[in-house]
DNA sequence: TATAATTAAATTGTACTCAATCGAATTTAG
DNA sequence: CTAAATTCGATTGAGTACAATTTAATTATA
């Protein structure tokens, strides 16, 4: 009744995070093992869609000599001009173990500079360079190109956006 | 008017993938550079939420001596008993460069065995072992525990699930 | 004010993730 | 039939992710 490799459920018998949790009074259709089926997971398509979408950036960002992680770090820089590693980490949900090599790579390309804060030597201030500012002009077309290869209705995009930020603990 | 580090938009002036694309007739509020703001992206919260959610699995899966990638590979095995690397790759959206070491690690732990297909020596068949089957009993509690630490309304979870599979090219 | 606690980055080690490439096996075309 | 094209998995190299640890700097406390 279902084509292979294609998810299908009626909303009365699932909850992606855990069927049993939201199945409600009529949870009889679920055996405990059903909770471990790939089709029933919500985390898995979240993880897979994230990777699939980011894959679309690669050819576009290659022209700017940026990886996706470097690109979102530059997004922060284009807005902030100067920011500490810690503050950038909070914005991007990344820790210093990830950001340190990313920022060193961006420094090597000449898009940012790194220096310690005079006020607090523990703090490393990342600052955008002129080349980094100039890169923005080449980057402005990227969002539209990404939009073109992912087909969601505007209200779906809005709803996805809202739910993702709810998961991230920032309800809007 | 807005608290720092918190996204907020009215649906008349955004589209997360690209503001200009969905802003509609009244797109005047957007300058081109607005498209590069982190708050306006849809890919970014997708990427961040994916990592944040998967982080929750780590302590749970540690007890099973599995990583998240190994866990989703085992999910496939619990349903299929035997499958080729290629077919598993299609289910998980992962290629051989990722799966080969993951499956070797699972073989080392004794949860799967690997052998070439007699019909086609190019094909590697992954088969679940008794230990792998037994592991399922320890894993059944994982989905509920994950559900407990992510608070979405059932209909939000359903909608997220649907949209993610739409992005993955499997509309439901 | 010594010292303890805390904080911020960097480092280390493990584990992906993926593009590109390779080599062996199989299929297809001529 | 046989050479070319395709397919499958493994390998390689670059770049993350992230927990845990380390080091240096700052702040709090007895």
Query: Assembly type of the shown chains?
Result: homodimer
- Beta strands of chain A, count: 3
Helicity range of the residues of chain A?
40-55%
Query: How would you sum up the major sheet of chain A?
Result: 3 strands, antiparallel
Shape of chain A: globular
Strand content of chain A: 5-15%
Mean residue pLDDT of chain A: 86
Structural class from helices and strands of chain A?
mainly alpha
Output the number of helix runs of chain A. Answer: 9
Largest interface: A-B, 75 and 74 residues
Give me the side-by-side strand order of the main sheet of chain A.
Answer: 1-3-2
Rounded to an integer, what's the Rg of chain A over CA atoms?
Answer: 21 Å
Kindly report how far apart the N and C termini of chain A lie. Answer: 39 Å
- Give the low-confidence spans of chain A: 1-25
Q: Could you describe the 3D structure shown?
A:
The structure is a homodimer of 172-residue chains. In chain A, helix 4 (68-80) packs across helix 6. With 172 residues, chain A is mainly alpha-helical. The first copy, chain A, has helices at residues 19-22, 43-55, 57-62, 68-80, 85-92, 96-109, 130-139, 142-148, 154-167; strands spanning 82-84, 112-116, 124-128. At the A-B interface, helix 1, helix 2, helix 4, helix 5 and helix 8 of A face helix 1, helix 2, helix 4, helix 5 and helix 8 of B. The structure holds a DNA duplex (30 and 30 nucleotides).
In brief:
The structure is a homodimer of 172-residue chains. Chain A contains nine helices and three strands; from the N terminus they run H-H-H-H-E-H-H-E-E-H-H-H.
């Amino acid at each position: 009744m279902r084509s292979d490799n294609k998810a299908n459920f009626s909303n009365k018998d699932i909850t992606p995070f855990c069927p049993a949790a939201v199945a409600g009074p009529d949870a009889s259709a679920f055996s405990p093992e059903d909770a471990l089926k790939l089709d029933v997971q919500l985390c898995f398509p979240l993880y897979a869609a994230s990777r699939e979408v980011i894959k679309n950036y690669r050819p576009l960002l290659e022209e700017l000599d940026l990886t996706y992680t470097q690109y979102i770090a530059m997004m922060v820089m284009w807005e902030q001009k100067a920011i500490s590693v810690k503050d950038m980490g909070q914005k991007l949900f990344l820790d210093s173990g990830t950001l340190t090599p990313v920022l060193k790579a961006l420094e090597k390309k000449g898009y940012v500079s790194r220096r310690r804060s005079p006020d607090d030597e523990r703090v490393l201030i990342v600052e955008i360079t002129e080349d980094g500012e100039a890169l923005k002009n080449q980057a402005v077309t990227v969002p539209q190109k990404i939009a073109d290869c992912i087909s969601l209705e505007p209200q779906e995009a809005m709803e996805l956006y809202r739910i993702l930020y709810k998961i991230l603990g920032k309800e809007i």
